[in-house]
Write a structure and sequence with these properties.
40 residues, rod-shaped
Length: 40
């Protein structure tokens, strides 16, 4: 039971981490593209 709960928790944390990482890369790409276009 505990092992299954730990696996579920890890999968949820892993999913949230991936979502956060994708959001960070999206923001970084927006900043870089704005800088290339001279908006910043």
């Amino acid at each position: 039971m505990c092992q299954c709960a730990n696996v579920d928790t890890l999968s949820v944390l892993n999913r949230n981490w991936h979502i956060g990482t994708l959001n960070n890369w999206h923001i970084i790409n927006i900043i870089l593209s704005d800088r290339e276009l001279g908006y910043t």
